[in-house]
Amino acid sequence: MMVPAQRGFTYLGLLFAVALAGVALAATGMVWSTERQREREKELLFVGGQFRKAIASYYERSPGLVKRYPTKLEDLLKDGRFLTVRRHLTQVYLDPMTGTRNWVLIPAPEGGIMGIFSTSTAASIKRAGFASEFSEFEGKNSYAEWRFVYRPAGTEIPSPNSAQAR
């Protein structure tokens, strides 16, 4: 026989356990979301570095005396300026932050593309402690400020307003 004072105790205990599980799942979701964003940041640094290296390769290996930047990203996949095709990049990568190939292209002063950056204006988690090749990203607050640019000695980056979305 059940004592009247004990009715509902199990029900309240179950409600408390469900609420506690909900809080734990919410905290796990937040940790997972932050970790996923950190992984995408690492991928953006890798992909941006690949674009920068490919643009440098295209520029430095220009035939003749005049160095040229690629006119479009596809030029990095198949450089037809030589008798045999040269490939500076294996693919036009997706932007890890947006999941698209809509990179913003940074025009070179003499024409062509000298760099790219993400269209994502989301706040970055990483703001310090970059590898030396990305030291210019220190203190930047958004992914759109992470500019992957190849600059030969003496070349400056054009203003952000002159960049064009692809």
Main beta-sheet strand count, sense and barrel state: 4 strands, antiparallel
Please report the distance between the alpha carbons of the first and last residues.
76 Å
Order of helices and strands: HEEEE
The shape, in one word, is elongated
SSE class: alpha+beta
Percent helix range: 25-40%
Q: How many independent structural domains? A: 1
Widest sheet, order of strands: 3-2-1-4
Low-confidence stretches: none
Helix segment count?
A: 1
Q: Radius of gyration over alpha carbons?
A: 25 Å
Report the portion of residues in β strands: 5-15%
Number of strands: 4
Mean pLDDT across all amino acids? 86
Structural summary, described in words:
This protein has 166 residues and is an alpha+beta fold. The protein has one domain (38-165). Helices cover 31% and strands 8% of the residues. It has a four-stranded antiparallel β-sheet, with helices on one face. The protein is elongated and about 95 Å long. The mean pLDDT is 86.
